[in-house]
């Protein structure tokens, strides 16, 4: 058996890694183990509970006022003991978090091969998204197996002279919808339970990235307020990140607007099911750019660039920047121009068919067999 240790520490990672963990557990050739770093805590725990994933190790690093430095040093120090005890044949990490890069580095120090799930995304601006762009690039230099969601991601790696063991698999987040989206779903969040969606266009908003703090987030909020005032029959739902800097800005501008519901962060089931009922998603998140198109919902990206250009090329996503007038104009276009709206909803999601986890598991088994032949 090949011993595979999957390591993740944030809510977005967990959403995309839990379907893969469940798939790995189905294979008799694989002994699947899970380690949580706890870079996030409560939101991470919600996700693994929903998927029924049981961790074998938990570093529990989250601390009040943690910084990139404290995350990095804590994960690096604690992973050493886990790797010494576990002795995995392969360590799997995901995407672009500090957990992913530091765990890859810890595995490299032990000369343990690393598999990078969701490899090859790039903006080519090392400070945007920060620190995610460099986390992803550095993880890519360390990894031995690269599970790229799209052909474009594969080409990015090849341009960087990374040419071996690149596998185009689709994105595991699409796999997650098999577990989370349900007919006649009943929301967990008490505020969502109270909302009557009948006959209303629901707009789901998330905005919290570091690079948007300050004036960009203020612009986003003013645009959202203008949309709410212009389209009084719409309902805007904004799960507000717990970062005090985010909450201060958001609540100062958007609180007490009748058709804007500011709620605390919601679990993945609520998020996916509200997304599936939405008319429009407005976000600075990376994951929602992949998730919403699988529900046929257009996405306006509240950033100046995206590391997911496939969705823009496919027509499911549009990057609108962080200026109030640009955000409002593009939202207005979708509210008032049915043809433009339909162009986005009927485009094909470029991120796969919901079988990415199966492909990754098969490639891991094939990689192990090829190593055994070489030995």
Order of helices and strands: EHEHEHEHEHEHEHHEHEHEHEHEHEHHH
The average pLDDT is: 93
For the record, the CATH class of the largest domain is Alpha Beta
Number of strands: 13
Q: What spatial order of strands do you see in the largest sheet?
A: 3-2-1-4-5-6-7
**In CATH, what is the homologous superfamily of the largest domain?**
Glycogen Phosphorylase B
Major sheet details: 7 strands, parallel
What is the domain total for the residues?
2
**Individual helix count:** 16
Low-confidence segments, given as residue ranges, are none
Radius of gyration: 20 Å
Query: Which secondary-structure class do the elements indicate?
Result: alpha/beta
CATH architecture of the largest domain: 3-Layer(aba) Sandwich
- Overall 3D shape: globular
Query: Approximately how much beta-strand content do the residues carry?
Result: 5-15%
How do the helices and strands line up, and which of them pair or pack?
Layout lengths: L1 E7 L2 H14 L5 E7 L5 H10 L5 E2 L9 H19 L3 E5 L3 H12 L4 E4 L14 H11 L2 E4 L2 H9 L6 E3 L3 H9 L9 H4 L8 E5 L8 H16 L4 E5 L4 H11 L5 E4 L4 H9 L3 E4 L3 H8 L4 E3 L7 H6 L2 E3 L4 H13 L1 H8 L10 H19 L1
Helix pairs in contact: 1-2, 1-7, 1-16, 3-4, 4-5, 9-10, 9-14
């Amino acid at each position: 058996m090949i011993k595979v240790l999957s390591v993740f520490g944030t809510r977005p990672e967990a959403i995309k890694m839990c379907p893969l963990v469940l798939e790995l557990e189905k294979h008799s050739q694989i002994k699947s183990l899970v380690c949580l770093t706890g870079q996030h805590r409560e939101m991470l725990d919600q996700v693994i509970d929903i998927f029924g994933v049981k961790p074998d190790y938990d570093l529990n690093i989250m601390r009040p006022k943690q910084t990139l430095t404290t995350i990095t040093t804590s994960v690096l120090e604690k992973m050493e003991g886990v790797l010494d005890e576990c002795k995995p044949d392969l360590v799997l990490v995901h995407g672009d978090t500090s957990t992913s890069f530091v765990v890859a580095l810890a595995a490299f120090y032990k000369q343990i091969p690393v598999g990078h799930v969701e490899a090859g995304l790039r903006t080519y601006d090392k400070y945007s998204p920060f620190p995610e762009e460099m986390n992803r690039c550095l993880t890519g230099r360390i990894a031995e197996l690269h599970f790229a969601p799209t052909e474009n991601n594969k080409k990015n790696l090849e341009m960087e002279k990374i040419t071996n063991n690149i596998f185009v698999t689709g994105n595991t987040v699409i796999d997650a919808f098999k577990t989370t989206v349900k007919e006649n779903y009943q929301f967990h969040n008490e505020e969502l339970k109270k909302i009557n969606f009948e006959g209303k266009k629901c707009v789901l908003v998330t905005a919290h990235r570091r690079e948007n703090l300050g004036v960009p987030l203020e612009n986003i909020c003013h645009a959202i307020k203008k949309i709410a005032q212009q389209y009084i029959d719409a309902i805007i739902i904004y799960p507000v990140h717990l970062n005090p800097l985010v909450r201060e800005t958001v609540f100062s501008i958007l609180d007490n607007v009748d058709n804007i519901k500011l709620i605390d962060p919601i679990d993945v089931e609520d998020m996916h099911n509200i997304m599936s009922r939405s008319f429009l998603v407005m976000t600075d998140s990376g994951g929602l750019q992949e998730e919403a198109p699988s529900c046929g919902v257009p996405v306006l990206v509240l950033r100046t660039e995206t590391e997911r250009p496939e969705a823009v090329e496919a027509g499911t996503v549009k990057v609108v920047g962080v200026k109030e007038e640009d955000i409002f104009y593009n939202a207005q276009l979708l509210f008032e121009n049915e043809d433009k709206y339909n162009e986005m909803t009927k485009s094909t999601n470029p991120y796969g068919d919901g079988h990415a986890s199966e492909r990754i598991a098969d490639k891991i088994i094939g990689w192990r067999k090829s190593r055994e032949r070489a030995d």
